[in-house]
Amino acid sequence: MAKLKIGIIIGSTRPGRFADTPAKWIYDLAGKRPEFEVELVDLRDYPMPFFEDATSPAYRPEQPNRHVLAWQEKVSSLDGYIVTVAEYNRGPTAVLKNALDYAYNEWNNKPIAFVGYGGVGASRAVEQLRLHAVELQMAPIRTAVHILLPDFLAVKGGEKKLDEIEHLNQGANAMLDQFTWWVKALKAARDNTADAQQKAA
């Protein structure tokens, strides 16, 4: 069986961002799973304009903007997503919400998991993102990783590394266990649907 393609989406683009640290950490943990082929997907590489199209990508999937087209192609190529989440004013970053809005069909019937960080581990931003994911016909994973302020400050200040904090590693592996099940189940379901449609054509 071909390996399942997993994208670790870095959900912040600001200078000096912390997001690279949890992205690399969860990338390494996910990469230990033999079922997965894992890649980092950096939103800095997809400098999309703010969404102002006349219709949703759900109704008009063709897109003249080359950065948006590249983003849609990348999202389509993946079987599941793990997103690093910062929290601004009790919500996710604008650039991450914008990236979600610039695809639709490409997200459908795939799982998404979250690694949040900051004052409350980005729990309020993650909660909003779960609602967005449902609207995009994704399966948001119940278990998330929340890097709370004491651990965030210790890692950011260089006093600790994420792979040295046992409760975060335990939480991340619990999330990955759940995520792996959903990636496999939804990939099988998508393949079965595609086979049935092909036979009916």
From TrEMBL:
GO molecular function: FMN binding; oxidoreductase activity
GO annotations of cellular component type: cytosol
Stretches assigned to the NADPH-dependent FMN reductase-like domain: 5-145
Highest taxon in the source lineage: Bacteria
SUPFAM superfamilies on file: Flavoproteins (SSF52218)
Protein's recorded name: NAD(P)H-dependent oxidoreductase
Species for this entry: Chelativorans petroleitrophicus
High-level lineage: Bacteria, Pseudomonadati, Pseudomonadota, Alphaproteobacteria, Hyphomicrobiales
